[in-house]
Give the backbone structure.
Amino acid sequence: MPDRSFPETDQEGERLMRLAIMGLGNMGRALAERLLGQGHELLVWNRTRSRTAELAERGAVVLDSPDGLGAGVEAVLVCLADDASVADVVLPDGNGRTAWTDAVVVNTATVSAETTARLAASYGDRFVAAPIVGAPQAVRTGAARFITGGPASACQALAPVWTCLTERIEAGADPVRAVVMKLLNNQMLLAGLAVVAETVRIGRAAGIDDTVLSSMLRDSAQMPPGLQNRRDGLFDPEHSGWFTSPLAAKDLSLALELATGTGTMPLTEAARAAYQRVAEDGWGEVDVTALTEYGRQPPGPSTRR
């Protein structure tokens, strides 16, 4: 093991790791904060360097490029937005990065089964898919979950990473299975949210006050916990949040790709079209709960496009 400037175990005797995170969007930043808070040594990289400043103040080492890991990094955690950004960083020129040869490569992003298979082919038994179920705040508090798929040896080496969240759902040795499970989870959430958003719109059209509608949804046995977490956002005029309609449409498209050749999926296709529409109407930079604004543009002199 290389010499380290930090304890190799925490006060409870848990092993600490030297890790790198690629991408500091909402989820990447939250994961970085959680790992730093647990004592792991962290190297971070982001295309927009200014996003690294707060983490650097907390002790993270800022990288100039994804190839600047140096010695001793045990795992690279990729936290990027979509297939294109993941492929650009993780598979430059279509191949794995030679600078990452000694590290386990962990993709936490929600990407397609095809991209996941390409990553696995390039990095072999050093690749693990570990998409995260939960919001960034749930990651910060440790309440989110990993869905992991990959070789047992690589998954076991990452045990200190898995324990930073409350639960790990094991999908087996095939990384693609983990991504499929995450896409199915998101498909249920996003299609269900589309239905509830229409419930709100129907209730409003019938003259029901928002306070009454919110109470009805809170008390309804038809509202699963995952949707209850979005209830307040449905009635928030600003729809503050992190999961945007373009991301929702992307995830539903990836889920639909899994069903290619098996016939149409009308409910999922309709939900995807609804998220695309509200983004086109100018609500694309706010939370997916903006589905309650379907067919209207944001107030003010300009839209959020």
